[in-house]
Amino acid sequence: MGDMLTGRQIKEARSLLGLSPSQLATMTGILRPTTVKRAEAANMKQPIADTHMRTIRETLEALGVEFGPDGVRMRAGRHDV
């Protein structure tokens, strides 16, 4: 796994997968879509728990998203959700 994600990375990954904040929240087991929206906010005035950020990252990576120094992309060979 690696460093914590930025809000921009979460939004880009979600967009790559064609997921709404609500869908991502459901897939992660996070109860409120507003938690995903807060995680995506540029400056989190209400930070979310590290465990939620970790869960979001793990879920996105399990769906085939890679986070690297060059940005967010789908892992080679993964084009399904």
Describe the structure.
With 81 residues, the chain is mainly alpha-helical. The model has no long low-confidence stretch (mean pLDDT 85). Helix 2 packs across helix 4. It contains 4 helices and 2 strands, in the order ααααββ. Helices cover 49% and strands 10% of the residues.
Return Rg in Å: 12 Å
Counted by DSSP, the helix tally is 4
Q: What's the total count of β strands?
A: 2
Describe the sheet with the most strands. Answer: 2 strands, antiparallel
Average pLDDT value? 85
Q: What percentage of the residues does DSSP assign to strands (E)?
A: 5-15%
Arrangement of strands in the largest sheet:
1-2
Précis, in short:
With 81 residues, this protein is mainly alpha-helical.
Give a topology summary.
Elements: H1 7-17, H2 21-28, H3 33-40, H4 50-62, E1 65-68, E2 71-74
Antiparallel strand pairs: 1-2
Helix pairs in contact: 1-3, 2-3, 2-4
List keywords for this structure.
mainly alpha, two-stranded antiparallel ribbon, 4 helices, 49% helix, globular, 81 residues
